[in-house]
Every structure is written in structure tokens, then in C-alpha cells.
Amino acid sequence: MESLTLDEFAIALDLGGTQLRAALVDRHGQVLNRVAVLTRATQGPDVVIQQLKDAAQAVMIGVDRDRVIGIGLSVPGPLDAAAGVSISIPTIAGFENVKLREPLQRFLDLSVWLENDGTAAALAEWRFGVGVGLQNFVYITVSTGIGGGVVADNRLLRGRLGLAGEVGHMTIIRNGDTCSCGNKGCWEAYASGTAFTRRARKRVEADGLGLLAGSVAPIDGQAVFEAAALGDPVAMELVSEEAEFLGIGIANLLHLYSPEAIVIGGGMSPNLEILRPGILSKISEAAMKGFENVPIVRSALGGNSGLIGAASLVFDAVSTKMS
Amino acid sequence: MESLTLDEFAIALDLGGTQLRAALVDRHGQVLNRVAVLTRATQGPDVVIQQLKDAAQAVMIGVDRDRVIGIGLSVPGPLDAAAGVSISIPTIAGFENVKLREPLQRFLDLSVWLENDGTAAALAEWRFGVGVGLQNFVYITVSTGIGGGVVADNRLLRGRLGLAGEVGHMTIIRNGDTCSCGNKGCWEAYASGTAFTRRARKRVEADGLGLLAGSVAPIDGQAVFEAAALGDPVAMELVSEEAEFLGIGIANLLHLYSPEAIVIGGGMSPNLEILRPGILSKISEAAMKGFENVPIVRSALGGNSGLIGAASLVFDAVSTKMS
């Protein structure tokens, strides 16, 4: 009676250094049975693989196993997608050359596909988000750090070890601030949410001015955006500086990938509108003829982009199981 | 009697703002009947198209027309490859939305393919140079300016309007020196041959020191490399600074495209060996795990890369005409 009962699902796993998320995702990109746990990042690969198995099993509860067509896995860092091996996850202890496909495949008797997290998120936007129908776009997540994924010439851009699109670690300021990666002057060190909050706190400490000075809790990025929206001049300056940093990096990406659109996700993306004038102004200074006038749009999928991307790997690979 | 007589040729046209080159290129990448003329860059598209026709006809002299299978055209700037239209060539007057395929096709009754010059040069290295067998590499030409082209996941990276890989115009120094493009702090403004020579002249004017001070002619880049090879400390400093600038940009490209190799062409490439230690040192500081240890190799095709790339467009498209 219900056409729903004919749906097929992918198990989506999104392995991060902090959180491990899992869900069932259907062919329409709907996320069901979502679970999230803290990654036991200090306890070694065996423990983390067990977490992945447990999470996969948890999201399958109550679902006809025949309707589950495969497992998609989004992982940070370099990988060998063909072999199903994660080469290194710096934020998880002991994660060096860890086989991920084999144990999951054996445990659930389902095929497994894996992809770099930034690339998976771009795939999600391409299949189900604001990237639908585009041949070329860059997905950027601006959050604690900055990551990315690229669709170019109607394909995912993977590169060696699936690592293409590591956009946060291009140098935009020679000998600039030290980045979490150890390099100096990375885009991430200036334009990430972390960098934005750090600048805001420093500024408030130094000047004690404006609406931000009255804050009881430690200033966070959101407070700055809210104060800027109310016209606070210090907050507006901070936002304008952030927009400039974002614009420098985005202009670089325009020249490097020549996308039709830039898609912004991550924790900062809800504030895209207040940042937009400053971003566009920087781009209009920096972009050459032929590279300007590329729309900058907000991610449609938010925190589910990793899961939906992981599931899309499965749907792209398996056209149908039930026909 | 001669197997040579069975060869097929492409007409290769390499349209630059300064020079217009043409040649016949065979399926082995051999360049024959090469001609080069100054581009009549101030005289409008009709004159330049006539130059292209004349050059194409000139290189066909003495060749059996049946053995010529098509025309490949390398052009700077944005283009519509499918329509055969050059959208803009800033260095040639009036070159806005100029049809290139149609007049050449009509004139010689041969099919025409066109590609962005950086991408065409990358294709040449991929088919006939140091990129043979690679799935992912970045070609960089360091000369008057800096250009590039990218092979990713076993395909040419084109992007919107064929413009992907415009590597020279990423900002590496916020608010840095003004670039020829009008932006500030582009890689080209620091690491191009032009920038290198400018720094050298300034340094010699200021300090009047070292072997370079004895030079009668105005200092050029080659003189600096030669003095550095002889141990001149000022020249060595200049070379080391140039290597650092090159290294910053190359490290960026490693993160953005995740290539298996970086291929350096252009006027500075003969001096790659003296630059290499400084480039590698910068990369080792800047590259994250997974992105290091990528070979940096010198272009094999030199000044013919544009022509060979243009011809490769034809060979890639036409598997054979004579079978």
C-alpha cells in the first residue's frame, strides 16, 4: 500500500575526529534513524571500527535488510578508495593505513564505498542540494577549520589519494599566523570560525568597546554577527575583515577551478548574507575577467552533508538492486 | 616504401598576445614546418584570423592534404570550446566573443578544436612529455607571467569556460605587490620571471654588491642564476627568495589538486635545479601529511608545448582518418 516500503536505503557513516555519525539515507536524500556518538579518538582503530559497526547496526533497526543496498563512508584525510583503506586520520590515534571496507563489508555483508569528507559533502550538494544540475562548483565548509570538495567538468575531483580540494591549507599570507597544520598563513588560519572568534576576543579585550563589551559569556562568532546586524561598529569591522579573508580565498578558488558556483557550508554559513557584500567586494577586486560574477550560495544540507554524501556514493555505484 | 608517408598530421596553432605559432605535428608529437610570427595584436580580430589562416596554410606546403586530419588551436583566456568561440583575449585588441572554429573550418575544410593555452600545454606534457602515464599532475609555466593546466583523475581539468588552472592569479600575500591583472599579491606578481628580474635589479641598485654589480647589460634573471651558481651571495639570496615564492604557490597547488607530480615549464624552467632545494624546503614546511613528496620535474617540451598540445586535441578527438 505504501510506496515507501519500496524504498531502498544506504547506510551512511560520517567518521570525524570528534563525532561519528550514522544514518539511513533514501534515494531522495532523506536522512532517517540518525545517530551521533563521540568518536573514541584516543583508543585506536579497533575501537573506532567497532563504533562504526555498532552505529551501522543501530540505524538498521526496524528496517528490512533487503532494502539496504550498501554502505557509504565519509572519512577525513588521505585514502585509497579502490582498496577501501584510510591512509591517515591525524585526529584519530593510530589511524594509519586502516582497512575500513573489509571489516564493515564482512560484518554486514554489504558493499562499502569510501570518500574523503570534503569530496563527499560536495557530492551531497551535487545530488541533493544547491549543486543539482551544475557541472562545476566548489563546496567550502567554514567551521572550526576550512575544508572543501570540488565538482569539475561534471565529475567529482579526487586527485591522488582522494585529497584534491583541501582548500583550507592554501597560503594566503606569506609568513602569516600559524595554522593548526603547522604552516603559516593558511586560509584556515584567517577565515575559519576559530580564527574569527579569536580575532573578536582579542579585539574586545583590547578595546572593550561596543555591544560586544557587554557580553557576559565569552564572545563567540555568533555574538559578533548579531552585534554587527545591530550596527555595532566594532562587530561590523570584524565581520568586514572576515568577509575580506573569505573573499581572498574564494577568489583564489575561482581562478584555480573555474566553478559556476561557490557553495558555502559549515558553522559560518548561516551568516553568509551579512558577509556577502564584503566577500563580493573582495572578489571584484581580485577576480580576472571571465572569473567574476560566480554566484555564492549557502549549502542546502547543513550538518547532514557528510551523511548524504556518503549515501550518494552508494547510490551512484548501485543503480538499483530491486528491479 | 617509407612508412613516414603514412603519417597523419594535425595543424597546430598557438595564438599568443605576442607570438602566433603554427606547425604540423605528427602522432608522435614531432613538430614539423614550424612558423612563428608576431601577432598583430592591435589590429583587430579579422587581421588576427587572417594570420591564423596564413600560418595554417604555410605549414601545409608540400604536405599531402589527405594526411592532415584536423586543426588544433591553443588560445589564452576564456573560451567556449563546444561553440569554438574565444570569449576574451585581453592581450589582443577587440578579441571579444570571436568565432575561431568557423572561419578556420571553412577556409581549410578541416575540423577545428580549441583549448585554453595552459590546459593545452598540460595536455602536451601528458601525451608526449613528462606527464605520460600520470593520472594527476599540474603543469606550471613560469615565464613573463605564470600560467598552468591540470590533469586530474585521468582527464584534463577544464572548468567553466575552460578556465580552470589559472594558477598565477591566486593571492599568496594579502595586500601584496600589484599584479599585471590588477589584483594585489598574486603568485605571478612574486614568482614570475618578471618579478624575479625586478627584484634583482632593485637589489643591485640598492646594494651594488657582488658579481651582479659588474654586469654591463641590465641584469636579467639568467645572470642572477649564473652568479648564484658561482656562489655570489646576493644572487644566492635572490634565488633562494624566488624558490620560496615558487614553493608557496606549489604547496598551495598540492593541497588544491593533489597531483602526483608538478611539471615546471616556461623560461625559468631551465633553472629548476638551482631553485629546487629552496622549493622543496618551503613545501616541506607548508605541505600537510599526504601532500608531501610529490616530484617536481621539468617540462620536456619547452616552447613547443602549446603547439603539441593543440595538435593533441586533434589526435585525442580523431582516432584515425585513414583506416
Key features?
21% strand; globular; 5-stranded mixed β-sheet; homodimer; disordered N terminus; alpha/beta
Walkthrough of the structure:
The structure is a homodimer of 323-residue chains. With 323 residues, chain A is of the alpha/beta class. The first copy, chain A, is built from ten helices and 13 strands. In chain A, the strands form three sheets. A five-stranded mixed sheet of chain A has the order 3-2-1-4-8, with helices on both faces. Chain A has a five-stranded mixed sheet with strand order 11-10-9-12-13, with helices on both faces. In chain A, strands 5-6-7 form a three-stranded antiparallel sheet. At the A-B interface, helix 8 of A face helix 7 of B.
